Amino acid sequence: MTLSSKITSAGLPHLTTSRGAALYIGALLGPGLLLLPGLAAAEAGPASILAWLALLVLSGLFAAVFAAWGQHSPSAGGVIGYVTAGLGRRAGLVTGWAFLAGVVCGAPLVCIIGASYVAELTGGGQLTRAAVAAVLLLTVVGLAAGGLRASAAVQLVLVGVLIVVAVVASAGSAGSARAGNWTPFAPHGLLSIGSAAVTLMFSFVGWEAVAPLTTRFVNPRRQLPRVVAITLAVTSALYLGLAVATISVLGPRAATDVPLADLLSHAIGAAGRDVAVVAAIVLTLGTTNAYMNGAAAMTGQLAHVSADSGASRPLLRLLGVITGVGLLLITLYGLRIVSTAALVAVPTALFLAVYLGAMVAAARVLHGLVRLAALPAALAVIGMLAFCGWALTMPAAIALAAGWRPWVHARRRSSPQARRMRCPGGGARQAIAPTTTRHEPRRLGDPW
User: Fold this and answer.
1) Which CATH architecture has domain 3-435?
2) What's the per-residue H, E or C state across the chain?
3) I want to staple 206 with a disulfide (CB 3.0 to 4.6 A). Which of 27, 93, 423, 444 is the partner?
């Protein structure tokens, strides 16, 4: 039984082009529409639009590379399989754990961002945000634990609602735009554009989250290019429209935690904030749901799930970790021990490490124009990692942990006792023989 059939038998149906596009769009959209236009404007002012444009180009490169990977090496392990094919098992292992750590750290952040809109409507403070975020997190985890069968259909509806709200916010508020809000263009200097790009990068991650779903397409070579083209066109239009509207309409007031609510207020009046709250909840559930789809398959790959063991146990373990770490981070946020900026920095650095591995592996394995796309994408990721500062400790720790385990086993294999066990005719060798197991061939993407 192939890995693809394992996932299908675990309850995940095949994807049509429209439902696949919905999952891809849902993975990319989310926090970027709720918070990051305001954070970027606070860091770089109107010059943050240059960071948006640069990341849209970079997102196109990511899309081309991941589409080529999906056609070249369909794998339920997603980026694990891609990086393993290009850089080896240990690099694939680091990439997989970095992705899962990014999901674990990013899920509570998305819930906090969504809760900010609820608190803005009700007038609550930071403790209210934390309480609402905890409820959202538990809701998302409960839905994921209940099964992912209807996720694609639900995602299709949620993405449609989201697109309508985003278009209304950006187009409906155009009448309040002011040319004077674009000056001064770079109040904090040109280097602030790099910092804004790192912050905005969190709104462009998602290509790696849905990479494991390539095995669920009936015809990946025909469907994937269409899905990627639709996703890139929709997300680029929405992001750029909202970025321009945030600066043109809000001006100095763009540095807010709830920019979408302010834009909707200009577009449809007092009811705009109510609509923003609904959109925030939809985005929270939709984005995290899409990540759960990719993370579930990747968790099974990392845990080396067999054909008859199913994928529920590793998924439940993942959800348990997300719940524990998420509630801890939300509590620290509610007590003002950690800030929103710090919560953004950690998963951003982890996802940048994932993208770096995928781009470098693509440059080694893939050919033609895709390789030419992977090289500048890898350089751009390295440039953004330089702005991550202390947050780089997380991917560095994962890399060290992944390297430590093989080193420990190597030392054990080279110890005098291990050598005696390997001696021909040795009693120790005979003692352990009955417990040895047959080594099965590794599959592409198997990090173990």
Assistant:
1) Up-down Bundle (1.20)
2) CCHHHHHHHCCCCCECHHHHHHHHHHHHCCHHHHCHHHHHHHHHHHHHHHHHHHHHHHHHHHHHHHHHHHHHCCCCCCHHHHHHHHHCHHHHHHHHHHHHHHHHHHHHHHHHHHHHHHHHHHCCCHHHHHHHHHHHHHHHHHHHHCCCCCHHHHHHHHHHHHHHHHHHHHHHCHHHCCHHHHCCCCCCCCHHHHHHHHHHHCCCCCCCCCHHHHHHECCHHHHHHHHHHHHHHHHHHHHHHHHHHHHHHHHHHHCCCCHHHHHHHHHHCCHHHHHHHHHHHHHHHHHHHHHHHHHHHHHHHHCCCCCCCCCHHHHHHHHHHHHHHHHHHHHHHHCCCCCHHHHHHHHHHHHHHHHHHHHHHHHHHCCCHHHHHHHHHHHHHHHHHCCCHHHHHHHHHHHHHHHHHHHHHHHHHCCHHHHHHHCCCCHHHHHHHHHCCCCCCCCCCCCC
3) 27
pLDDT, tens only, 194-241: 989 998 898 888 787 666 677 778 887 888 888 888 988 998 999 999
